[in-house]
Amino acid sequence: MSTKPKTNFRWTILSLLFVATTILYIDRSALGILAPELQKSIGWTEEQYGIINSVFMIAYALCFILMGRLIDTIGTRKGYLVSIGIWSIAALGHALSRSWIGFAVARFSLAVGQSGSFPSAIKAVAEWFPKKDRALAVGIFNGGSNMGTILSPLIIPVLVLNFNNWRVGFLWTFPISIIWVLFWLKYFRNPEQSPYVSAEELQYINSDSNENENTEKVGWKDILPHRGAWAIAVAKFMADPIWWFYLFWGAKFLNEKFGLNLKEIGPPFFIIYLASWGLGIFLGWLSSKLMKIGFSLNKGRKLGLLVCALFAVPVALVPHTENMWLSVGLIALAAGGHCGWSANVFSLMSDIFPKKATGTVAGFGGFAGAIGGAIVAFSVGKILQDIGTEGYAIPFAIAGCGYLVALLIIHLLVPKIKTINI
Fold first, then answer.
1. For labelling alongside 341, which of 96, 309, 380, 400 has CA 20 to 30 A away?
2. Residue 216, pLDDT score
3. What is the CATH number of domain 10-205+217-413?
């Protein structure tokens, strides 16, 4: 090790996490992009579409907490392989669906696999990056969620229209997933075991680690007594459903309010998610920068979360605007605020808990976020079924204020952020 040149192989690992997150969001968002067309051809109601998304979220919630525990048990390398394998096959299953019930089954299966992605990625970041760089690293790999949602409306409509078959929209990512698996098998190891990591890089990765920390496996009973776990659960429960709302209902909202069809949906979504991607990376970098210039972990992280929450406030005005591009701009700001929020919350997990617990904590937080998403998905479908398009004002209002309320609760639960011992 001492004879190896200085390396930066951790960024190669981060690039693999970015690509996997991109694939995940392409597979996840395909249904939302095709929903206006599928609703016409298959004939589901608003309420049934809400149920389809609720089924996804319920499965995501239940499996998220199980996957987090599994990943802490079998390790990041094997855990991510299990995750992407299940969700890639489930994505193919959408093409076999003939009714809204078939889509509900396919979405359930997709959720089972995808529930392991973020616990695996967060654990990988905790293993490969020191604390001071984790918010930036999470912001970068989480940018795959924006890349996936950028590529989906640009590529999926072209494929579907050229082949004149909506099933192609769910099939094309499978070969890409196989290629990713081959790279993951070749390159991913723990830093201490990787032949591509120099002694200097390994020292940097472990620069703020507790060398005396034991590596015994932890369970839910070990994290639930700590208020930090519940603060993370609140952060996810209140914020994640807002992102799901943009993802599942964004195309339908623009279609119903401004008449955008499958051919026209690409540019607005490109702007929304490209802008939110850049904002998400900036807001993830911001808290890291604040700490590097002298702010404490507590102040730096919470100020970062506050800025993210403020970016989301104007989105409450979206249903009341008559200009499509103004609506797109407000959603882009709010989506960027969410991406920054997610980067800081994921980093908060490793701020409070040791590396050995990050998968379990991420699973618990994801469970809470998915439960919130299931409630919101069913509620939005029910509201739109009963009220019509005017009902969009309710979820957009919640999207505007939800982050500030969540931050207040986080602060009350964790007045001072510090790493705990388990």
1. 380
2. 65
3. 1.20.1250.20
